[in-house]
Amino acid sequence: MAQITLVEAINLALAREMERDESVVVLGEDVGVDGGVFRATLGLAGRFGPGRVLDTPLAEALIAGMAIGMAAEGLKPVAEIQFAGFAYSTIDQILNHAGRMRHRTRGRLSCPMVVRTPCGAGIHAPEHHSESPESMFAHIPGIRVVYPSSPRRAYGLLLAAIRDPDPVVFLEPTRLYRLFKEEVADNGEAAPLDACFTLREGADVTLVTWGPMVPETLAAADELAEQGVSAEVVDVATLKPLDLDTILGSVARTGRCVVVTEAARTCSYASEIAAGLAEEALLNLLAPVQRVTGYDVVVPYSRLEHRYMPGKARIIAAVKKALAFA
Description:
Layout: E1 2-4, H1 6-20, E2 24-28, H2 44-48, E3 53-55, H3 60-72, E4 76-80, H4 91-98, H5 101-104, E5 114-119, H6 134-138, E6 144-146, H7 151-163, E7 168-173, E8 182-184, E9 197-200, E10 205-209, H8 214-226, E11 231-235, E12 238-240, H9 244-254, E13 257-260, H10 269-280, E14 290-292, H11 305-308, H12 312-323
Parallel strand pairs: 2-3, 2-4, 4-5, 5-7, 6-7, 10-11, 10-13, 13-14
Antiparallel strand pairs: 1-8, 6-12, 9-11
Helix pairs in contact: 1-7, 3-4, 8-12
């Protein structure tokens, strides 16, 4: 079993599914000859040809619109947007067409497309390359939003996303693309969508996170363990639809919850989870839900971006605040 990075797992999943299903096509800026800006599609054009790996113009709305048309005609397009900061012009197509296709046609048509895009800070890039817009996409009815946190998870979730009959926005944590390697079996087995994953069991507090903040959250849990605090870590993985039951079950055991996200604080997805806990788990909570987030500012340039991103110290401080309640 090979040890590979997250971006290599993305490539492996794309190749596996393109080999298995001839209706799967890849499109986007520089995905063909260059293999993508992060090389996520490296080698696919040579293997599957220009008819299935399409270099497009620098026009994100066009890419999304093409993918919707392909999906409506029986293909399974996987569209790449080079950076999430460039994906805002795709929201018109995703909201008004992709998310409504099944409803608008009364089930006659579905829209089996995936929109992949790298996002998140930590790679010393400009602000348009560093944003975390998951809550914007999660607000759109009719689509799934998936945000993997490891090579193995990325491989299985991307296979599941491509096979799903409805549109999926697949966010890829840029900072984790090559941060670490993991054993990934190229066996074509999809991971379950719409499910949270409990990465670590604990008794004192539940740490809920996803995507790029998973490593920092696990590191915080390790340090808390040294201090005698047992933290359970839940990786949301699929933000829309949310598997709230897993989080509720964890909070029922621990009584406390800290939600960690890199995105700006106001209207972040952490707020959605906190609201769900307030509605469904109030009698199980021993302390208010704590949110550890980015700030309500544009992601700063590289000299200051480490001050923007939540880190281990802020997560531990939030846990201690929750534990301070009797």
